[in-house]
Amino acid sequence: MKSFNVIGSVVLALLASGTEASSSKCDAMSAYSKKVQEHMSYPIDFCVYYLSSPRTRTPLAMSVQALHDSCCCLLDAAEIPIPKHHTSSAPAYADSNKRVCSIEFKHLISKTFYEPKRFCKFFDAFPRSVSPIPGVTAEQLLDGCECFDHHHHTTTTTTTTKHKKPKHTTPPVEPTGEVSPTASETGAASPTSSALVCETDVPSYIYGRYEVSHEFNKTFDGNFTLAYNGAGHTGFADYVQSIQTTTLANNSLQAVPAISSCLDWVAQAQQPAQGSYAVNVYENATTNAWTCLLYTAGDYPSYNATNSTDSDVLCSYGYNEIEWNCEEC
């Protein structure tokens, strides 16, 4: 009986330890989980959909792993089991070869997702059989996505590059033979060192909603476009009113979460936009951390000038702020 009590105590201790570890991980992912909830109307339904199959893409400005972990935390909080991956024979996919734009479902997508074009780029990457929106079919979503200016999987051209690929396990491919992107749509610059591998598939356009504390917690809509994707350069402009700097985290953080963190900081650091605001986030070889720069009113910076070359700069991403509006002001 005594040995049974000891074993029982050990089991309870292990269970408690596992619960604490899971809780700790979800606490660390809280910012990403919040973003998932804020950027779509049906986060739980979407997460059930997203976790039901191996993924290599994401409709949000965060990495596949960050979205996966955030969804696990959201479902855990809602006491919903994590769905198992589909292992049955191939389902009947919606045919997206011949689509007619449906304004009705375009509006539905726009109301459901804060980044509708980015969602459609994800959803229309290849045939779909399941919809993440309750009461709406995959075919109806594809008809709505047809209204946006994008190219679906039947017309996408893949480009072969000579970048040295990182040594890691190949991520599972979604069940239609999706090809993982090899270069940014904006034209990724080659790394300055053959040993340096930078993420090239970062968002070319980011739309976010930010609650700004120094503006009485009012919500601002921010739009940012990718201006630079490369290595070895920070932004340089002939005239910039001022530059604000912050250190984000150690550079074990992936590029997309680092960019997202930088923009979250920018939302709080900048005053109401008065000119050409710009953002640069890069890995700093000296501090071994991500650095985020905010260029206030002035010229949009260049990333190819001699003045912008810096040996401390590893992977570097530049975004220009093209819109910063307050709906409640």
Radius of gyration: 22 Å
How many separate helices?
Answer: 8
Question: Widest sheet: strand order?
Answer: 1-2-6-4-5-3
Terminal Cα span: 69 Å
Which band does the percent of strand residues land in? 15-25%
Total discrete domains = 3
Q: Give me the count of strands.
A: 6
Describe the structure.
By secondary structure, this protein is α+β, with helices and mostly antiparallel strands. It has 3 domains: 2-77, no CATH class; 91-152, no CATH class; 205-326, no CATH class. The chain has 8 helices and 6 strands, in the order αααααααβββαβββ.
Q: Topology, please?
A:
Blueprint lengths: L1 H27 L1 H9 L4 H9 L12 H14 L25 H10 L3 H8 L14 H8 L59 E8 L5 E14 L11 E8 L4 H15 L8 E7 L4 E7 L17 E14 L3
Antiparallel strand pairs: 1-2, 2-6, 3-5, 4-5, 4-6
